[in-house]
């Protein structure tokens, strides 16, 4: 049997499933658009279903919609996904917020709240999670706890990136572009059939842009990017009942530094606006002359198999390996001071395997069950360098040594002599005060801390659906998780006690004699979901669900604890949600309302006595909201995609009868309202081709950058909107195109992040988003 015939026979078992892949043929060239809106087919429940039939709040984008909305990275995806906010400081440090629940910690032992997957393989580890989107078949974002579908990290939902596989055809594509800020883009794919049963696909992309914030410190612009990605896929169906995909991914990111600009201290010749020139510096000699910026490599191999055991039984597996290596160097103060520099040197590797058995004989009962094995080992090393003179002046000015006037009087010098950050007092005040004489302060004092985490986890899960009637289906699922964890860390210096306080460390957390400390622990838990789906008629599907999600327990390095570690208990969410999907001749409308309650919501609080962030249980929280979306053909020449989100997520006033630290505060990265609108307008067409206009606009209300909403005036983002548009020409056969594109066309000023590491010193920094960018892009299909 030819591969094409084999695939047609297996189509009902879910083409291109993340967990149950079939070697299916997909269209690689643009096809004429249908006269009515087709509903996207998704595999969120590990079987091919129309989005209308999935009893989950899922926002899905197929290749046509990805192109229409010009989704080229994860930030673009968030613009059009209700409840999703993604803010990228750099590819190494990206915040993901789904319904106000945020994942962004880079600690080696941290656990995620929002899960990210690449064809079913977890890519959730923070420093390796940001991947470039190219040659994508589909994007699916499932909201709400999904314990039997996603597993680890899916406290409140997950994002699955489904990549194009090799198909039984010979084809290729090539595109390129350029624009202001020296934008460059080049990418494409080659697909080659290898006989009747095998095929190979190679895809790649290169995207680069200079920075948009001038840096007076080293003359190199900040907030630029340079990414190169390559993917190779080998697919085959050696028998009528077995098929596979082998996928290899490689990505390298580099670029200038992140624009951590001080909002309090203006460098000479600048101001405190995050949108104007900054002065970020490196103390000479740090890390053997490393420059500000990022160097990161992420790579991995995935093997997907799909085996028809019988007409009713289907076995699928997902096996994955990933590793990453990342070094980012930054100035956390951003005020033109040679005060402090940090670097984050992170690396890790993971191995995972999932086996899933699915039963579907066409009757009322469908089910799946299986197990998952997951192993990861990660390290995060944080070296720092300090100018002790500037550090001393800073600590004196904040009152760390007592009243500055009294300190100055005791030394017989004016106050300005010991508080001037730009011309600091050169001798140790602590030494003078204790009679040790004039001990000079060092301009390049270094210290280092590190943490490491290792996790080995086994999961078993089962999910059963039963069609009680032709219209009513009930689903119940459960997952059991067992985890063995090891956490370790150290903090020390080779330069002896610092000369500002004469303590073992100046800022970073210390361990006895800089030795490594470690802790082990085991955890287990049950999570579950219950769903009722009811088809009111052929056009209206409704559903309601009640589910429990979990963020695993964390062994956190905590130098404030006598044994240097503390256990952050698992975060638990229980969520009640109801939704509907309504189909019309020209489009569809879907949405849901939800209410979620959280226990043990974890935060981190800076402890000035230890100079480190200590784990903090922020207690309980409550969230409720509504999400709506529509994809509509309003006219034969006009297609519209629109979303609206209302989300109110706040910390409860009390927990166990005790007042909470963040009582009544909003979750960070959680706008109350957001709206997105995208359109495809056919301006003109004929035998020569087609001209179309593709505008989009996204808006969100104000939100906070910290769970402490009152910390540091201005550490919030006011409401803003982003307008994007493309004017596109395509030939009549859709095989050639040229387009003008523009992003942030109104040149809206808004922030990517605020507070940051500088906030721990009382000096919050602010990072500006990209201004107006524009350019031209051309491409061809062969």
Automatic annotation (TrEMBL):
Keyword Repeat applies: no
Chief location category: membrane
Signal sequence annotation: 1-24
Pfam families attached to this UniProt entry: Plug, TonB_dep_Rec_b-barrel
Keyword Ion transport annotated: yes
One of the record's GO cellular component terms: cell outer membrane
Subcellular location: Cell outer membrane
One Gene Ontology biological process: iron ion transport
Membrane association type: Multi-pass membrane protein
Domain TonB-dependent receptor-like beta-barrel stretches: 312-745
InterPro entries on file: Beta-barrel_TonB (IPR000531), Beta-barrel_TonB_sf (IPR036942), Plug_dom (IPR012910), TonB-dep_rcpt-like (IPR039426)
Domain (TonB-dependent receptor plug): residue spans on this chain: 51-157
Keywords for this protein: Cell outer membrane, Ion transport, Iron, Iron transport, Membrane, Receptor, Signal, TonB box, Transmembrane, Transmembrane beta strand, Transport
Domain of life: Bacteria
Membership in a protein family: Belongs to the TonB-dependent receptor family.
Protein name listed in UniProt: TonB-dependent receptor
Organism of origin: Alkalicaulis satelles
């Amino acid at each position: 049997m030819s591969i094409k015939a084999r695939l047609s026979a297996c189509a009902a078992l879910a083409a291109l499933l993340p967990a149950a892949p079939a070697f299916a043929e997909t269209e690689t060239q643009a096809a004429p658009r249908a006269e009515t809106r087709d509903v996207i087919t998704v595999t969120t429940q590990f079987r091919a279903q129309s989005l209308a039939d999935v009893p989950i709040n899922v926002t899905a984008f197929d290749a046509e919609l990805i192109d229409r909305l010009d989704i080229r990275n994860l930030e673009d995806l968030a613009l059009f996904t209700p409840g999703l906010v993604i803010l990228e400081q750099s590819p190494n440090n990206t915040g993901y917020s789904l319904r106000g629940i945020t994942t962004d910690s880079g600690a080696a032992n941290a656990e995620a709240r929002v899960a990210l997957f690449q064809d079913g393989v977890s890519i959730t580890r923070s420093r390796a999670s940001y991947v470039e989107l190219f040659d994508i078949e589909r994007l699916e974002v499932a909201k709400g706890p999904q314990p039997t579908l996603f597993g680890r990290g899916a406290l409140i939902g997950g994002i699955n990136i489904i990549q194009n596989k090799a198909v039984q055809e010979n084809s290729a594509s090539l595109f390129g572009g350029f624009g202001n800020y020296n934008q460059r883009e080049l990418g494409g794919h080659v697909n080659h059939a290898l006989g009747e049963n095998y095929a190979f696909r190679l895809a790649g992309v290169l995207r680069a842009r200079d920075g948009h914030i001038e840096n007076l410190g080293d003359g190199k612009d900040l907030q630029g990017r340079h990414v190169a990605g390559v993917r190779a896929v080998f697919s085959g169906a050696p028998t009528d009942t077995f098929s596979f995909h082998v996928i290899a991914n490689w990505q390298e990111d580099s670029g200038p530094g992140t624009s951590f600009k001080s909002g309090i201290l203006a460098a000479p010749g600048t101001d405190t606006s995050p949108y104007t020139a900054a002065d970020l510096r490196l103390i000479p000699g740090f890390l053997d002359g490393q420059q500000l910026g990022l160097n990161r490599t992420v790579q991995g191999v995935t093997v997907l198999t799909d085996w028809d055991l019988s007409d009713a039984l289907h076995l699928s597996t997902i096996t994955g390996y990933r590793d990453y290596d990342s070094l980012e160097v930054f100035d956390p103060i951003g005020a033109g001071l040679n005060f402090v520099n940090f670097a984050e040197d992170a690396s890790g590797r993971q191995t995972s395997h999932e086996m899933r058995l699915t039963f579907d004989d066409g009757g009322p009962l469908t089910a799946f069950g299986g197990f998952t094995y997951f192993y990861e080992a990660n390290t995060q090393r944080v070296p720092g360098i300090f100018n002790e003179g500037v550090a001393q002046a800073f600590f004196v000015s904040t009152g760390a040594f007592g009243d500055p006037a009294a300190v100055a009087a005791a030394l017989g010098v004016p106050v300005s002599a010991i508080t001037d950050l730009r011309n600091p007092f050169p001798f140790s005040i602590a030494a003078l005060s204790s009679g040790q004489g004039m001990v000079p302060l060092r301009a390049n004092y270094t210290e280092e801390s590190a943490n490491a985490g290792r996790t080995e986890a086994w999961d078993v899960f089962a999910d059963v659906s039963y069609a009680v009637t032709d219209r009513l289906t009930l689903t119940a699922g459960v997952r059991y998780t067992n985890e063995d964890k090891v956490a370790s860390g150290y903090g020390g210096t080779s330069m002896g006690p610092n000369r500002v306080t004469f303590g073992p460390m100046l800022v970073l957390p210390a361990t006895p004699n800089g030795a490594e400390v470690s802790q082990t622990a085991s955890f287990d838990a049950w999570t579950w979901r219950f769903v009722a789906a009811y088809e009111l008629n052929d056009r209206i599907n409704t559903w309601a669900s009640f589910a429990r999600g979990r963020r695993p327990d964390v062994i956190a390095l905590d130098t404030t604890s006598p044994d240097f570690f503390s256990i952050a208990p698992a975060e638990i969410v229980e969520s009640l949600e109801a939704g509907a999907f309504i189909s019309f001749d020209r489009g569809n409308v879907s949405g849901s309302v939800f209410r979620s309650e959280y226990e043990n919501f974890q935060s981190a609080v800076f402890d000035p006595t230890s100079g480190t962030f200590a784990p903090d249980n922020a207690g309980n929280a409550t969230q409720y909201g509504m999400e709506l979306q529509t994809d509509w053909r309003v006219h034969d020449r006009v297609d519209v995609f629109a979303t609206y989100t209302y989300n109110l997520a706040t910390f409860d006033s009390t927990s166990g009868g005790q007042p909470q630290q963040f009582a009544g505060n909003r979750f960070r990265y959680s706008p109350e309202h957001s709206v997105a609108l995208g359109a495809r307008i056919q301006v003109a067409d004929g035998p020569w081709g087609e001209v179309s206009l593709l505008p989009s606009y996204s808006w969100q209300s104000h939100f906070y950058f910290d769970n402490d909403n009152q910390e540091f005036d201005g550490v919030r983002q006011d409401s803003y909107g982003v307008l994007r548009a493309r004017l596109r020409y395509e030939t009549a056969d859709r095989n050639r195109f040229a387009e003008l594109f523009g992003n942030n066309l109104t040149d809206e000023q808004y922030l990517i992040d605020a507070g940051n590491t500088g906030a721990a010193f009382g000096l919050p920094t602010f990072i500006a988003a990209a201004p107006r960018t524009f350019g031209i892009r051309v491409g061809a299909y062969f």
